[in-house]
Amino acid sequence: MDMTPGKVHTIDFQSETLSDTYEIQYYLPKNFSDLYKHHVVLTFDSQDFFKYGQIERQYEKLWEAGEAERAIIVGVPYPSVGWRNDYFSPNGEHHDLFVSFVSRELIHWIDNTFPTLKVGTSRVLMGESLAGSFAFSVAAAYPATFSQAAAFSPFVDEDFIGRFESQPMLMHLDLYHTIGLGEDDFMTISGEQADFLTPNRRLNEYLEGEPLEYEYRELDGGHIWKTWKPELGSILKHYLN
Question: How many CB atoms lie within 10 A of CB 82?
Fold first, then answer.
């Protein structure tokens, strides 16, 4: 397994629980040393976080400025739009199984492969759109294992809000939630007209009344990386400083 620092690596991960193989990406920062324990930033739609968000560059800038602790970035890319709808969408056929995979098998592999801090408060989940919904789903289901999660413009419906309403341990969570003001009427990647702004405001209304750490931001812009990328540095600093 390639442990070269400063590069994005890709491996095929064979899941025993799901009897399937998934692509996993990981980035070891330039300062990487197995003499130190690291935070874990776990991204969904990871190829977009690297390509459009340039998350590794944003992390390196924060490290050089003394504004972030040691961290590795691990990610699950999506092979196709159909796969993304099936696995990352809260209403997808394999969504809940994949939540279990991430929360049990994948994090176990990460902790056994890399020098990590191995506690919920040292792990950050991140995703945008359906992958943002997925990041929040994992945190809502396993708040002690993953107590920190950031979602840009997640897909939200009443059933999704119910995932938080049925979780009695919300006080473990530290969530960062953004939505674009231009997302009241836009075309999704699947070619459907959608309003994400209204249901995300509903989710915000609910979470603001609950006993958790919660940051909510409405951004100028739409359902695109141009809106999300400027937030990444703030989020990394929020969780890693």
Answer: 11
